Amino acid sequence: MALEIELKLKVEDLAPVAEKLKQLGAKFEGDFLQTDAYYDDCEDSLINSDRCLRIRKHKNHLGEAIELTYKGARENHRFKTRREIGLKVEKAEELAELFAELGYKEKLTFEKKRGLWDFHSCKVALDELPMLGKFVEIEGPNDDVIEQAQKKLGLENLKHTPQSYAHLMEEALAKTGSKKRRIAFDLK
Question: Is a pLDDT exceeding 70 seen at residue 10?
Fold first, then answer.
């Protein structure tokens, strides 16, 4: 089981961050449209214990990949830290059927546009989500390396957002009174 350590920052504009990554020699890994589907039982036992079960579809110009991820409860660290197990899977639909047989239902699904960079021993994601806006996520091997990357990118004055995107999306939906459970970009 791997340990996920990440810092999430809300930003107004991703373009200056992308430009800074280029200037600093970061390696661009590609743009993706990700669709994240979160599952839980009827009692919400995963979310109530700060855990999650997710099927993620990654799409880009090369095709689609599917990943199943389990994330454990957060640990007490400076940045969001939790145990994570990820598996590549072939068919999301069959996995969803298996979850249903085990008593898990799809609770929330949303899209995310993600530009992914390799920088300073970290993965830097430039994310845009409907209803939520734009974020920079820095995932790395430890808090110190992540903080160094944050400083090199000139983002040290931004406040850390400790909540997951799923939690932020649930809050945004509750504020609007929306009963929607599938949130996508409006591609009109």
Answer: yes
At residue 130, does pLDDT exceed 70?
yes
Report the number of distinct structural domains present in the chain: 1
188 domain-assigned? no
Q: Which burial class, exposed, middle or buried, applies to 167 when counting CB atoms under 10 A from its CB (0-12, 13-18, 19+)?
A: middle
Residue 90, helix vs strand vs coil? coil
Distance, in Å, from the CA atom of 105 to the CA atom of 40, rounded to the nearest integer, reads: 6
The span from the CA of 5 to the CA of 184, in Å, is 27
Range of the structural domain that residue 151 is part of: 2-183
Which amino acid belongs to residue 158? L
Neighbours of 92 (CB within 10 A): 17
Asked whether the whole model's pTM tops 0.90, one would answer yes
Average pLDDT over residues 171-176: 94
Instruction: State residue 62's pLDDT score.
Output: 87
Backbone angles phi, psi at 78, to 5 degrees: -60, -45
Place of tokens 């409907």: 130
pLDDT band at 76 (very low <50, low <70, confident <90, very high): confident
In CATH, what number is assigned to the domain containing residue 35?
Answer: 2.40.320.10
- pLDDT, position 81: 94
Compute the distance between CA of residue 70 and CA of residue 51 in angstroms, rounded to an integer.
8
Amino acid (1-letter code) at residue 112: K
